C-alpha cells in the first residue's frame, strides 16, 4: 500500500468511497441525510485537490495479478484560520474514509498519520475534525490516534 496525493482521474474511486460514508450517515440519521448519487460533486472534488490550502490523500494498493491499483482509503484536510480565535492555522479533517472491505487493517491510521505530518509541514498548530455521535467505532479510532473532545454540539427536535 502507498499513500499518495489524489489526482483528477481518481474521482470515480473517490466517489465510490464517499458513497460508502454517505450510506453510513443516511442509515443512522435519515432525519438529516438525503439519498445522493454523488455525495461529493466532481467540481468540488477538483477544486479541493487543486487547492494549496488542502491535503488530499489516497491509500492505494494493488490487488490482482495484472497489478491494477485500487484506492482503498481517502483523506481530505483543509487548512483554516479562525477570525475570532487565537491566530493559528488549524488543519480540519473533512473526511477520512476506508473502503468497508479494508477497515481495521491500518489503512486509516496511515492516512491519518500522513495527513498529520503534512499539516505540521504547513505549520498547522492543531488538527480538528467532527464525528457523529452514532459512529462509535470511528470515535474509538480517533481517540486511539490521540484526539480528544474539544466541544459538543447538542440538538433537540422541535
Which features characterize this protein?
158 residues; alpha+beta; globular
What this model shows, in words?
Helix content is 32%, strand content 25%. The protein is of the alpha+beta class and 158 residues long. Strands 1-2-3-4-5 form a five-stranded mixed beta sheet, sandwiched between helices. Strand 3 (69-81) and strand 4 (89-98) form a beta hairpin. The mean pLDDT is 93.
Task: Lay out the secondary structure.
Elements: E1 2-5, H1 11-28, H2 42-50, E2 54-62, E3 69-81, E4 89-98, H3 107-121, E5 126-129, H4 136-144
Parallel strand pairs: 4-5
Antiparallel strand pairs: 1-2, 2-3, 3-4
Question: Helix and strand string, N-terminal first?
Answer: EHHEEEHEH
**Largest β-sheet summary:** 5 strands, mixed
What is the distance, rounded to the nearest whole angstrom, between the alpha carbons of the first and last residues?
48 Å
Mean pLDDT: 93
Principal-axis shape equals globular
Helix content: 25-40%
Strand portion, in percent?
25-35%
Strand order of the largest sheet: 1-2-3-4-5
> Roughly how many Å is the radius of gyration?
16 Å
Uncertain runs are none
Please give the count of helices.
Answer: 4
The number of strands is: 5
- Secondary-structure-based class equals alpha+beta
